Amino acid sequence: MNNAQLKKKLLGTPYFLWSLIFILIPLGMVFYYGLTDRSGAFTLNNIISITTAEHAKALWLALLLSLIATVLCLLLAYPLAMILCNMGVNQHSFIVLIFILPMWMNFLLRTMAWQTLLEKTGVINSILNFLHLPALRIINTPYAIVLGMVYNFLPFMVLPIYNALSKIDRSIIHAAKDLGANNIQVFFKITLPLSVPGIISGITMVFIPALTTFVISKLLGGSKVLLIGNVIEEEFTQASNWHLGSGLSIVLMLFIIVNMVLSAIFDKDGEGSFL
Amino acid sequence: MKKTPIYVLLLTAFFALALTGCGKGASGENGEVIVYNWGEYIDPDTITMFEEETGIKVVYDEYETNEIMYPKVEAGATAYDVLCPSDYMIQKLIENDLLQEINFDNIPNVKNIGQQYFDQSQEFDPENKYSVPYCFGTVGILYNKTMVDDPVDSWSILWDEKYADNILMQDSVRDAFMVALKLKGYSMNTLDEGELNEAKQILIDQKPLVQAYVIDQVRDKMIGNEAAIGVIYSGEAIFTQRENADLEYVIPKEGTNVWIDSWVIPKNAPNKENAEKFIDFMCREDVALKNFEYITYSTPNDAARALIEDEDIKNSRIAFPDLSQYNNLETFHYLGADGDALYNELWKEVKAE
Amino acid sequence: MIKTTLQRIYVTLIFIFLYAPIVTLIVLSFNASKTRAKWGGFTTKWYTSLFRNEAIMNALANTLLIAFAASIVSTLIGTIACIAIMNLKKRSRAIVMGITNIPMLNAEIVTGISLMLLFISMGLKFGLGTILLAHITFCIPYVILSIMPRMKQLNPYTYEAALDLGASPVYGFYKVVLPEIMPGILSGFLMAFTMSLDDFIITHFTKGAGVDTLSTKIYTEVKKGIKPEMYALSTIIFVTVLVLLILVNKAPTDKQISKKKVK
Q1: Which residue from A14, A54, A121 is facing B349, i.e. has the nearest CB?
Q2: Residue B171: is its pLDDT beyond 60?
Q3: Which of C214, C223, C229 to mutate to test the interface with B (most CBs of B within 10 A)?
């Protein structure tokens, strides 16, 4: 057994090497830039700068909006996943692909399409106008940003939950009902707890990317709402200040660590899978 | 464990393939030239013409902003032969020792470029040693005649509450501050903190009235009557007017920014001679005319301008303003790392409101 | 009955939400006007000029090549990595999984720039190869995260039983382990492919001159306006994949592996 186990561990070498070179070393570079200033001297200023008014506000807004978007995604995705589960076991791959398909159209084009839909003179308002209904005024506001986030990340929430739900053994539910549980009890005592790994996975795949987005706030928020993603992007491009950009990114990694800890607590066995 | 060697073989084979880069087309007989330019900023036919006439293969790469282009050039990841930066970026490249002087003997067609553009270029290229103008223009107000009933001749209309949620500003720190500084009567290259704070304040005051801060979207939004007034580049004005006849372009009385995008050669260019041939080709009047008709951005090439058939456009004051008429036009300077940092800080404060 | 109707309405609404922008893009691909702001009449000229546009066709070829190559390589590496990770102690496993998550969770611009710096310090020539390396890097996490749950659900005794019955480790792997984790491998491959297709920022910083993917091409057109040929191309891609989807779905192929856990 030992020999075989050793060989299995060796199989991991390509990946371990890869992650060392392409994940850890670049990460080290980010830390290097984040902890130094233009002259190369060590400084904590880049990281501390998160506390300045604009940065703190940008971070706060990003947290708020991505949190709202995540919760919305969860609320929309969970019932959808349940319905899809009950719809048909053979449809599994079809359903998965139907959700992935929009992601194959370029992200920028899709977001720009939302502009065409949401503008004052856009498609939705033209229809509403025609029906003599009040106009929809959400473009260039934080509401549109949340909509953009939900639109983009909804599939990432639906699929893990759908996956988790479809793995639940139907006979457990039957047994519970036989023992006298009603639908609500079944949901809260069995379905929900068993789907937690999927929920955690979904939250991870939605919250963190939503936190760092900058395209959505530019296109749908009229660039009027400054999010932490915008700040970092501008530091790297407009301001050419890689040190500050890296420093702020290090702060964001805090959230990654928090997420890893939460995953470890709630999803000990790593059952939450994406597909 | 027969599988492990096969996996390893497969992977190494793949790597070998990938790293040699299958994208390598055959080089031209006279070598190649690597050009890095704005997106959609050249008529593709002119590239083909150049390749056929000179036998030099053009490797063409595009970027969307000066700021995205700079880190790639600075890092030296790819050595480009020709770039097309804007005024202040050229100055930044010069000051950071990233450009080399052009041998104008190799660019005879440079005579086609109007002297006034070289004079204007001295604001960022003091001795005209590093750049050859390619496109130029102004920044002005584009407004919809049917949606605006006041006379439009000043930047102040962008602060008029009547047009709340109908105003588009440029989503760029220098352009936004240019408007504010000009309105206040200051230089758009100022580093005076007092003046800058005043500009910042009026930008913050303006924010509730602004529909959106945009770059290219000004065009589509103005054409679609989504907004009434916008800050726009002169090159776009012609295009938008063709699509929507209700649009007018005006240079405000307080003055504005005259910008120039020029060809430059980076210091680490591997094919300098071919680079100069490329620039020379672009200065030829028929080539410049083709590019002008494709891009619709004004050309500083007076010889090309003489060839324009449409009288309206040839004499258009939007496309070819008489720069001497205005006395408060400026070109952007590079403000240095600290200056940039200061502007960026203030811009962040405006955006964070 | 009301419940089912409500369910159907709900699902339909969500699908409308998901596909509304796609439909918009399809409609725009037939718009004679270059700008999305007004309808200039119906036309198919963008579809014909699309195929004559060498730059876009090259970008398309690059995009597909990179996506396929990156997903194949990352699936290979990811699969054998999962086997190795399963044999680690719990603590090491947690650390490795944590590291795996980093490219997925880091801001893309940070990943892009740091990889660019890495490649420069390694002295690599920027081109198709560097893009590939970068894509593989951020695709592997998705593969691993797709396969790991299935690996954990594996019954180790089945594999041991196979060995006891005389199968070599490799044969045992092929016959016992692989079929069980195949859905995970396939979905990992699919995710890697999808993420690679649409990536812009990381590709932008790690590409060389003259090499473009569709995403980078679209982004550089942002300043002067998106060419309508792009809408046409997107529509073609969408319709192609949709048709493939429907065809595959019509053919009865799925072997439904029973999900009942064997205790």
Answers
A1: A54
A2: yes
A3: C223
Mean pLDDT of chain A: 84
| ipTM exceeds 0.85, yes or no | no
Q: Encoding tokens for residue A103? A: 């992601």
- Cβ within 8 Å of residue B45, ≥6 positions away: B290
Which residues 114-133 on chain A approach chain C with CB closer than 8 angstroms?
114, 116-117, 121, 123
- Which C residues, 75 through 94, put their C-beta within 8 Å of a C-beta on chain A? 77-78, 80-81, 83-88, 94
CB atoms A223 and B212 under 8 Å: yes
Q: How buried is residue A17: exposed, middle or buried, by Cβ count under 10 Å (0-12/13-18/19+)?
A: exposed
C114 interfacial to chain B (CB closer than 8 Å): no
Token reading at B303: 């010889």
Say if the Cβ atoms of A19 and C231 lie within 8 Å. Answer: no
For chain B, the domains span 27-136+260-319, 137-258+328-352
Q: How would you write the pLDDT of chain C (263 residues) with one tens digit per residue?
A: 678 888 889 988 998 999 999 999 999 899 888 888 788 888 888 888 888 888 888 888 999 999 999 999 999 998 888 888 887 888 888 888 888 888 877 778 788 888 888 888 888 888 888 999 999 998 998 888 888 877 777 777 887 888 888 888 778 788 888 888 887 888 888 888 988 988 888 898 888 777 889 888 888 776 667 888 889 988 988 888 888 777 776 655 444 444 444 44
State which residue of chain A sits closest to B222, comparing Cα positions.
A121
Query: Considering only the top CATH level, what class is B27-136+260-319?
Result: alpha beta
Asked, colleague to colleague, whether B27-136+260-319 and B137-258+328-352 share their fold, the answer is: yes
Token readout for C22 is: 């796609």
State whether A83 and C19 contact (CB < 8 Å): no
Scored b (16 or more CB within 10 A) or e, A138-175 reads: ebbbbbbbbbbbbbbbbbbbbbbbbbbbbbbeeeebee
In which element (H, E) is residue B58 found? Answer: strand B57-63
Domains along chain A with CATH numbers: 50-266 (1.10.3720.10)
Contact status, residue C140 vs residue C74, Cβ threshold 8 Å: yes
Q: How far is A180 from chain C (nearest CA, A)?
A: 22
Does A218 lie at the interface with B, CB-CB under 8 angstroms? yes
- Judged by CB atoms closer than 8 Å, whether chains meet at C55 and B44 is answered as yes
CA distance A150 to A170: 31
Q: Token pair for residue C253?
A: 């192929």
The class of domain C56-224 in CATH terms is mainly alpha
For C:174-213, CB contacts with A below 8 A are: 183-184, 187-188, 190-191, 194, 197-198, 200
Domain boundaries, chain C: 56-224
Asked if A71 contacts A210 with a C-beta cutoff of 8 angstroms, the reply is no
Q: Which chain A residue lies closest to B167 (C-alpha atoms)?
A: A222
Q: How far is A159 from chain B (nearest CA, A)?
A: 31
**Interface contact C114-A26, CB threshold 8 A:** yes
Among the partner residues A26, A116, A209, nearest to C118 by beta-carbon distance: A26
User: Which string of b and e fits B27-60 if b means at least 16 CB within 10 Å?
Assistant: ebeebbbbbbbbbbbbbeebbebbbeebebbbbb
Establish if C106 touches chain B: CB-CB under 8 angstroms: no
Q: What is the pLDDT of residue C16?
A: 92
| Helices assigned H by DSSP within chain B | 3-20, 44-54, 66-75, 87-95, 115-121, 173-183, 193-206, 217-223, 234-243, 272-282, 285-295, 302-306, 311-314, 336-352
Q: Which amino acid is at C189?
A: F
As given in the structure block, the two tokens for residue A149 are 């986030």
Give dist(CA B95, CA B89) in Å, integer: 10
Class at the top of the CATH hierarchy for domain B137-258+328-352:
alpha beta
